[in-house]
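Action item from last week, closing it out:
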Amino acid sequence: MATEPLIARKGRASYLGERSAGHRDPGAASSALILRAAVGAAA
């Protein structure tokens, strides 16, 4: 995902600072799943 190289600046992950880089953002991942399911249901 595109969020993996980013450093968290907001939320709980911001406490990790530089260590947050390299991990998927759970909010972005769940939003992507929901949107994919909605597109699949609409098609």
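Closing note: Residues 21 and 43 are 35 Å apart (CA to CA).
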